[in-house]
UniProtKB/TrEMBL annotation:
It comes from the Bacteria. This is Post-segregation antitoxin CcdA. It holds the Pfam family CcdA. It comes from Mesorhizobium plurifarium. InterPro entries: Post-segregation_anti-tox_CcdA. Keywords: Toxin-antitoxin system.
């Protein structure tokens, strides 16, 4: 996962968060801003991965078809 820089420029945001969750987080001294930022970073990374897979699906399928038909290139040189 992407490391979030401590000195990054921050932008204020208004969020709606479950009140019970917020109370629990405050009771546990969770930095809610940092936790939200980490969650957003994780969601962004997951979406980028999903989009990359969609954009490259045809290439991956073509490669898998090639390997199914011809085997792994240079397989005779593998030592495992």
């Amino acid at each position: 996962m992407r490391k979030i820089a401590a000195n990054a420029v921050r932008q204020p945001a208004n969020l709606s968060i479950d009140s019970q969750l917020m109370a629990e987080a405050k009771g546990l001294n969770v930095n809610v801003s940092r936790a939200a930022e980490a969650g957003i970073a994780e969601a962004v990374a997951a979406e980028k991965t999903r989009l990359w897979k969609l954009e490259n699906r045809a290439t991956m399928e073509a490669w898998n078809d090639y390997v199914d038909k011809h085997g792994i290139p240079l397989a005779e040189h593998r030592q495992f």
